[in-house]
């Protein structure tokens, strides 16, 4: 079994589209507007294996992130160089936590958030 895709509902489609494509650098596979749902669906490529489906819906409820609540905790991206990725994201205007070391794997990682406060982790290969 493998992960097929990750679905994210955003509060502001244009802001989130810009974030995931221009800030994170994900590639657009396809973009459609579904009139019957008043919703955009944007399929984004992450490398060669996974897809994020970015959805917009009229007036979605706000996501509970902090304090942590049941459900999806965060989305983690694997990167070759955590320091480089953190510096790049800070230069693009994101607030990033300090780099930490995973106590079990000794790998470096840090967190930031998307425009709707979904925690995003960047974890070193």
| Percentage of β-strand residues | 35-45%
Main structural class = alpha/beta
Query: What's the mean pLDDT score?
Result: 91
CATH topology call of the largest domain: 2,3-Dihydroxybiphenyl 1,2-Dioxygenase, domain 1
Given the C-alpha coordinates, what overall shape results? globular
Q: Unreliable segments (pLDDT under 50, ≥5 consecutive)? A: none
Question: Regarding CATH, which class of the largest domain?
Answer: Alpha Beta
Helix content: 10-25%
Distance between the termini: 21 Å
The total of beta strands comes to 8
Order of helices and strands: EHEEEEHEEE
Number of domains: 2
Radius of gyration: 15 Å
List keywords for this structure.
2,3-Dihydroxybiphenyl 1,2-Dioxygenase, domain 1; 125 residues; alpha/beta; four-stranded mixed sheet; 2 helices; 2 domains
Layout of secondary structure:
Blueprint lengths: L4 E6 L2 H11 L3 E8 L4 E8 L3 E7 L18 E5 L2 H10 L8 E2 L6 E6 L5 E6 L1
Parallel strand pairs: 1-4, 5-8
Antiparallel strand pairs: 2-3, 3-4, 6-7, 7-8
